[in-house]
What we know:
By secondary structure, the chain is an alpha+beta fold. It contains 23 helices and 22 strands. A five-stranded mixed sheet has the order 2-1-3-15-16, covered by helices on one side.
Amino acid sequence: MPKNRSGGGLTATQQAAKFLGVAALSGVVLAGIALPAAGALGLAAKGTVEGFDEIPANLKTPPLSQRTTILDSKGGAIATVYSRDRTVVPLKDISPYMQKAIVAIEDARFYKHGAVDLKGILRAMNRNVQSGGTAQGASTLTQQYVKNVFVEEAGDDPDKVAQATQQTIGRKVQELKYAIQVEEELGKKKILENYLNITFFGQQAYGIEAASHRYFSKSAKDLKLEEAALLAGLVQSPSRYDPVNDTEEATKRRNTVLQRMADVGDISRATAAKAQSTPIKLKVSKPKNGCITAVSGAGFFCDYVRQVFLTDPAFGKTKEDRAKIWNRGGLTVRTTLDPQAQQGVQDSIKSHVYKTDKVATAVTLVQPGTGKIMGMGQSKPYGLGQNETQYNYSVNKDMGGSNFGFPTGSTFKPFLAAAAIEGGKPATQMYSAPYEMDYPDTVQTCGKPWVNNSVPRYHLENESESEEGPYALKEAMEMSVNTYFVQMLQDIGMCPVSHMTDKLGVVQGDGTKLPQNPSALTLGSNGLSPLTMASAYAAFANRGTYCTPIAIESVKTAGGDSLPVPKSTCTQAMSETTADTINTLLRGVVDSGTGREAGLQNRDNAGKTGTTDARKNAWFVGYTPNMSGAVWVGSPSQSVEMEQITIGGVYRAQVYGGEVPGPIWRDAMTNALNGQPAPPFNTVDIPDPPRDEGGDEDEGRGRGRDRHDNFDDGKNKPGNTTPFPGITITPGTIGGNDGTPRGQTNGGQTGP
Length: 752
């Protein structure tokens, strides 16, 4: 929107010609009222002045853009966002001083003339010619309102704004006709109310209520005389008379308004003089706009809500339609964010990972059975400063996240196990699970079989030489035995796993399906987002029913109307028995396996650890029957190997999923669920495998003692995968030997 209405740059002669032209055209308008055919009498030159009668009869007044308030699930404000900071108020809530001041300085004859003030035009023309500049404008307040409507309708489109403000005779005629319509339909008081609500007052403030808060931190109804005069003076040139940046110029302009109010009899000379002698006293409130203002670290969730609004067809058929509604604002968006859960997420993050650390963490909590996102946060705050970011590590690329997500390591193994059990494999299934092995010669896919034909052949190892089978599924899951799950994949093929991940909404961070290769569908070599993982694991908690994640519960317009919102879609991804079996297996991980440091007190819980190549990513994904959460720790650029590193003030020789992400998950979930019901899982009985006589099997395997979770050698991992724009990464060798040295155990320490 233009910041200056003056006609600076025109000579006295040009100004005279301009106002003479306006006066003449005013005559045309008046003639058009009495004689509609006047527009066809040669008064409209082609390409210059549109025939008066050809101008549409109705001015389409767009809804005024206003601020949108985003609320949590309890009704507390998360953030305020707006294209234009405006709060529409009725005339009764605007100080009488303000009403009088704006009329006095902008259109003193407002209540005496019609839509067009011929007397004012002639007076302005005469004074401007005498002064050699633009001492006085000729537009009535109604005409100014009409012009502001055109600008409002143009929105943020610079071309449309230019058209709305072009100084052509044709545009002037259009404004004049619409001004006549407005005067007839609205009346003076409504025009004044609309004008004060639409006008730009500088400092990002549109409308008198926003301006009053910006400059004086008070409502428009409470403005004093000298304050109202100051704001009224801003309208002519918000930048020139800005009191924040030029007190002297602003004081001169304010005093001019006060003098004008005295001249027209709104206030006495003595009152004007007293107000003129009063120094300007501002109480400036800085503009607070956007997700950067969100409370409790909810900036990333706030941005996710915005992304949902701009991309979901529920809010409009086209991208343009959705953007128009969002930019118009005035919405009250109630979200799924639970304030207790969000605070739990933030408190846990701050306790375990500092924003200045070389690595970051992202935490997302969702509610099983509803898909509601309950909490979302990360250690790098939302912003543009040092150690801040506007990338949301918790979500996919199309919603403001990383390019590819982050490799999940062994947290992928439960999806493979679910596919196997759903296909009829028993929970007691055993495989030889040697310490190391080549990948199988072939593995069936949904199409052409995958073939291990590389030179050298694809090979993998378990984390420790003590991890040597045979193993049953429960023990293999607790210890996260790599070779066991590769043998399981060979046994059932990749197609059942692909079908299972499809039903669980598991896609890569860039939105594409997971490739059908052993490392992707067994050991988590491909990137996923924490929201994807938390939502998929929530299906286990919900006895096999997967619900798509949602963030918005309701949206109301400024007028109180409700807009349709996206709904979660829930589908049965696996049988209840399969889900109950996974719950039993993953409960063992936190009870006696690699995830013991993540275990919750006094409530059923289950989960899985994951640690990837060179310790560039560490995960814990877990759940209770009423909450699911995923925690990722790593370098967003995938450039940091988490060995000999300090995270959250604690030195780590090596980072494992059970030791860093696990406690983050534990503390976030503990706080989020404090005071909430603690329902039990539905579990199944999984018999222990037979033991050799002498009972030395546990010793030979190092049962429960190894804490590492790595995946394959990575030779079939795509190269140059980059989580964020502008960063290129060359993947290293993925192996099973970057944890505890071969032949050693970790002395009973817990999971990855």
